[in-house]
Amino acid sequence: MISYEEALSRILSAVHRLPSETIPIAQAAGRFLAQDVRAAIDAPRADVSAMDGYAVRIADAAGGGTLTMIGEAAAGAPFAGHLNAGEAVRIFTGAHLPMGADCVVMQEYAERDGDTVRFREGFGPARHIRTKASDFSAGDVLLEKGQRLDPRAMVSLAGADMATVEIARRPRIALIATGDELADPGHAAQSAHAIPESGSFGVAALAESWGAVISARMTGRDELESLARFARDALESADCVVVIGGASVGDHDLARPMFAGTGLEEHFAKVAIKPGKPVWFGLSGEKPVLGLPGNPSSAMVTARLFLAPLIAALQGGRADAETQFMPHILAADLPANGSRETFVRARATEEGLLPASNQESGAQAPLAASNWLIRRAVDADAARAGSVVRALAF
User: Are both 151 and 104 inside the same structural domain?
Assistant: First the structure.
C-alpha cells in the first residue's frame, strides 16, 4: 500500500488539463480559469467619494465658515464644473470628486440652510476619498490561471470589466456502480436481499459541485462481460471514469478486470488510509480511471480526497488549493490511531469539530451532518477535546 500523499501525487502527475473554451461570465461560476484575468480599467476610474456628504476644500471646511452650494454629484452623474474657494458640492457615495475639491465631509456634520452649508467640529481627519486606481489599475492581474471562480472571485472578474472569460472545459465523468445487491432507490424494498444504490448519487453531486458533468451513470451486476461493456461505453463517453465498488480481492470484485480489454495501465491498487484502503487508479490511454470503495460513506470520503482534486486538475486547477487541511479545535476526545492514516468524519459546532459517533464505512445516517474530515496520522496518540487538529472541508 502507498500513502495518501503518494497516491494523490500519482493521480495529479498523470492528469492533464482539458482544452479551454470562452464563455460569458454569467456562466462561469464554479469553473477554473484557463488564463490570468487582467483588469481592463482602473478601479476606481477617478477619485470618488466614499461617503454621502459635501465635497469641499479642506481649508474651507476647517475654517468653520459658511460655504455656498454650487451643485450636486452622484454616482454616474458627476458635477461638471470646478469647485473654488468658499464653495461646496453636495456629493453621494461613488460620485466623482469635483475638480478643485480635496475633501468630503460626511453629511452628519453638515448644517444646511438653503444654498449654504457649514460644518460642526469633529469631521476629520479622514477625507473620505477613494483615490483613482487605489483598488487596482488597468493591466493588473486580479485572478490567476487555475483559480476557481467562487462567488468572491466572480466579483473581481466582473469588476475587471470582463464580458467573457477563458476557462477549462467541464470534465465529463462516467460513474459505474457495481454489485449484485444494488437496486435503484425506490425499488430496494421489493427484494429482501437488495439495498438502494446510493453512492453514485453522492459522488455525482460532489463531481458536479467541482465543475464536472456526469455523462453516464451505470449500475452493473457482478458479471464480467456486462461490466466490460460498461467500461468500454464509459471510456467512449467520458474524460474520466469512476468505479464505485468491486475493488477488493473476492470472486465478485471485478472493478479492475472489467477494464482488461481497454489497455488500462494501473498506477496503484491500494492506499494506506481508513476509510479507503481499496482505492485504485489507472489510465486507459490518457483517460483516468479511479476506483472508489463500495460502501457509500467510504466512497464519499475518498471522492473528496481524490476525485475532487482530480477534477480540479482536469480543469487546470491547483490541487494544493483544493486539499488544504486547516487547523481546528477538537470538540471531543479521539482515541489513538492505528497503522493507517485515518480521516474522521466530523461536524462543525460552536465548541469545535465534533467527530461522528459512528465511523463505520457503511454508515450513512451521520454522513449528511459531517462537513469536515479530521486527518489523523499513522500511530497518532489520543487527542483530547480542546486540542488542535487539522481538517479538510468535506
Answer: no
Grid cell in block for residue 348: 462543525
CATH number of the domain to which 115 belongs? 2.170.190.11
Query: CA–CA separation, 312 vs 296, rounded Å?
Result: 22
What pTM value is reported for the model? 0.85
293: preceding bond cis by omega (within 30 degrees)? no
Q: How far is CA 193 from the centre of its chain?
A: 39
| Angle 333-337-343 from CA coordinates, rounded to 5° | 85
Alpha-carbon span 25 to 42, nearest angstrom = 19
Looking at the structure of the chain, the number of domains it has is 4
Residue 176: give its domain's CATH number. 3.40.980.10
Shared-domain flag, residues 194 and 335: no
In order of 89, 91, 301, 321, the CA distances from 73 in angstroms are: 7, 5, 56, 44
Cβ atoms of 87 and 36 within 8 Å: the answer is no
Show pLDDT as tens, one digit a residue, over the chain (394 residues).
Answer: 999 999 999 999 999 999 999 999 999 999 999 999 999 999 999 999 999 999 999 999 988 899 999 999 999 999 999 999 999 999 999 999 999 999 999 999 999 999 999 999 888 889 999 999 999 999 999 999 999 999 999 999 999 999 999 999 999 999 999 988 888 888 888 888 888 888 899 999 999 999 999 999 999 888 899 899 999 999 999 999 999 997 665 555 788 889 988 999 999 999 999 999 999 999 999 999 999 999 999 999 999 999 999 999 999 998 777 899 999 999 999 999 999 999 999 999 999 999 999 998 888 888 999 999 999 999 999 999 999 999 999 9
The separation between CA 187 and the C-alpha centre of its own chain, rounded to angstroms, equals: 35
